[in-house]
Amino acid sequence: MQKKFLLPVLLVCASLLFSCETKITDIVIPFTKQLVVEAYLCPQDTLIKFNISSNSPTVGLVSDSNIVHPVPNALVILSDGQKQVQLRFKGVFIQMLLGGSQRLAAGYFVLDTREFPIIVGKTYTLKVTAPGYPPVTATCTVPENKVDKKTIQIIKGNQTTTQGIQLHPKLIWKDVSGEENYYNISVYYTFNNEYRGPDSKGVWQVRTIESGMYPAIFERDTYLSDYGLDGQTFTKEGSVYYYDQAIPADTSYGYTVVKNQKIVANVAAISKEFYTYQVKLIKQRDSQGNPFAEPVQVTGNIEGGLGFFGAYNRTEVVLDLKK
Q1: For a tag site, which of 89, 269, 285, 293 has the least CB within 10 Å?
Q2: Are 312 and 143 in contact (CB under 8 A)?
Q3: 27 φ, ψ to 5°?
Q4: What is the largest CA-CA distance in the chain?
Q5: pLDDT tens by residue, the chain, 323 residues
Q6: pTM of the full structure
């Protein structure tokens, strides 16, 4: 009697095991096309780039690819409440990312501030439309606070040769006391390569053959808050490749001289919203490839789209390395 019941039970169990191997292939992940805006106003800049691109479906890890989807037919309008300007499309440029890496950023539009000045304390509205995308809009106000140039100092720093010749410049500045402040810093090494020697006809000439600009790399984030540090002095040390080329003993065949070597540093005052967005963006990128990392949701201020529209007020100082 028991054997009669045993066979049906085994058949049922076997069918259950086979059902566990059924593959589900009709999963549909919803995706909505949206415009992605990266635009930052600065009253000290003469030419400002607005990067307008399209989002792309991503499953799993956040993509940090060099692929950007441009939207060249977008209509980009910037207004200050009294007048407005339409930005013109320019094409492709190389964008420096945090840490010194580069990304191909196609689809940027330019604003000439000589034609449409950016004024400290003013509020600006950005509107972008494009066929096949929901319209987007955003507003931002240019910060009024600014770091006093007299309180900023650049120190050339030590020189090392572990990985080529490197400088370790230090940027020092004093926080504006009595108010909540947020900063973004950047340091660059700039130079010109000057050729001195005969041309194809043997005529001696002196001409610039290359101009370079290398960003300094910082171990920690370049977005800073004065929370708990009101009125104190900030110090950030970075590292940057450096040219120290000697003139050859025999110069009759021509030689190259490195000229106009400078360290250019910027301390930009930014809004709290700008700071929060960038810090979350950094944390999200740092979590890539880590299955144990806590998910970071990055929320911008683009209504109807993605990204951020902000402004900063920067102070620039320059240190001449060689005259």
Answers
A1: 293
A2: yes
A3: -75, 130
A4: 112
A5: 455 556 555 555 555 555 555 666 666 677 788 999 999 999 999 999 999 998 877 654 444 555 667 888 999 999 999 999 999 998 765 555 444 455 555 568 999 999 999 999 999 999 999 999 999 999 999 999 889 999 999 998 877 776 668 888 999 999 988 999 999 999 999 988 888 888 888 888 888 887 888 889 887 779 999 999 999 999 999 998 887 767 777 888 888 888 889 999 999 999 999 999 999 888 887 777 777 777 778 889 999 999 999 999 999 999 998 75
A6: 0.78
Q: Which among 276, 287, 282, 311 is positioned nearest to 113, based on CA atoms?
A: 311
Of 260, 240, 65, give the one whose Cα is nearest residue 160. 240
Looking at the chain, the number of H-run helices and the number of E-run strands are 2, 20
Look up residue 182 and give its two tokens.
């947020």
Within 13 Å and on the Cβ side, how many CA atoms surround 317?
19
Distance CA 239, CA 187 (A): 9
Q: Token pair of 27, please?
A: 């999963």
What string of DSSP letters covers 151-219? G-EEE---EE-BTBSEE--EEEEE--TTS--EEEEEEEEEEEEEEEEE-TTS-EEEEEEEEEEEEPEES
Residue with tokens 């020092």: 172
Q: How far apart are CA 122 and CA 272, in angstroms?
A: 17
